[in-house]
Design goal:
The chain is built from eight helices and eight strands. By secondary structure, the protein is of the alpha/beta class. The strands form two sheets. A six-stranded mixed beta sheet has the order 2-4-3-6-8-7. It has a two-stranded antiparallel sheet with strand order 1-5.
């Protein structure tokens, strides 16, 4: 037998004897496998959690569930369900607050059928898309959108105090989104503005930029009518029973569209 092989064999036997005597059997790594000795198995207490820990874990689950079909928030009483995809992420630091839920028994209940749906119907989305394109030259999807409040509720007669409580409770989600995504300005549409400020105050500040204090900071806010107002005028023009009425509705629609574009121009400085 080759002398070199005998020497190697003798060397291996000697090392094996040494390992057996020390009772050490190291496991060697193969390729890019991690050394088993480097794995960490952290211990986590299963004891009673503090109120702070429970609250923080709950908020983290909610924060990570912004795009789930059923938003798991349990703050408000009378909640029917969380609105599907209540928060949609954009690229421009402008947040559009709106509300697709019903506020009175007369309004038909509404459930979003598509993940990226914002408004109740496609024609309103198209109308809004055209307004944003004319005002800024880019897609309406560049903005952030948030349902405010983020849930639907049992339909009852409109009671402003009840909605004010829901709006106040829902601020926790709004504040987190403003802070996390560096929102520089807010636009509030239609019913969401009425729920936040009340009917009369919403009318007073319509089309005006104000500073809204939220989460310890003052952020520019612009209140607009819902684009559904333009859709309404369009539908009326289709049902006009005379040329004069058709002309009148068409004129009102153009004037309202110009007003939208004029009001939206106020937020260009925050893009």
């Amino acid at each position: 037998m080759n002398r070199f092989l005998l020497e190697k064999y003798s060397e291996i036997i000697s090392e094996l004897k040494f390992i057996i005597n020390r009772k050490e059997f190291p496991i060697f790594k193969f390729g890019d496998e991690a050394d088993p000795g480097e794995y960490s198995f952290p211990w986590k207490s299963v004891g009673i959690q503090s109120t702070v820990q429970i609250t923080e874990e709950k908020r983290e689950r909610q924060r990570n569930s912004r795009e789930l079909a059923n938003f798991p928030c349990t703050i408000c009483a009378g909640k029917l369900a969380g609105i599907r995809n209540y928060f949609q992420i954009g690229r421009k630091p402008i947040l559009i607050l709106h509300y697709s839920g019903s506020t009175t028994p007369k309004e038909k209940p509404f459930i979003k059928k598509q993940a990226k749906q914002i408004f109740r119907d496609k024609i309103t989305e198209i109308t809004w898309s055209e307004l944003i394109q004319k005002s800024f030259g880019f897609s309406f999807e560049e903005f952030f959108y948030e349902e405010y409040p983020a849930c639907t509720f049992t339909p009852t007669e409109f009671v402003e105090d009840d909605w004010q409580k829901r709006i106040e409770a829902c601020k926790i989600h709004l504040e987190e989104n403003i802070r996390e995504f560096g929102i520089k300005a807010i636009v509030v549409l239609g019913s969401s503005a009425r729920l936040i400020f009340g009917t009369e105050r919403a009318k007073e500040i319509l089309g005006k930029e104000i500073l809204w204090e939220i989460g310890g900071q003052k952020i520019p806010l612009l209140t607009l009518r819902s684009p559904e107002a333009l859709v309404f005028l369009e539908e009326k023009s289709k049902k006009a029973d005379s040329e004069s009425n058709l002309f009148q509705y068409g004129k009102e629609k153009l004037e309202l569209e110009d007003t939208f574009i004029q009001h939206l121009s106020q937020i260009k400085k925050y893009l």
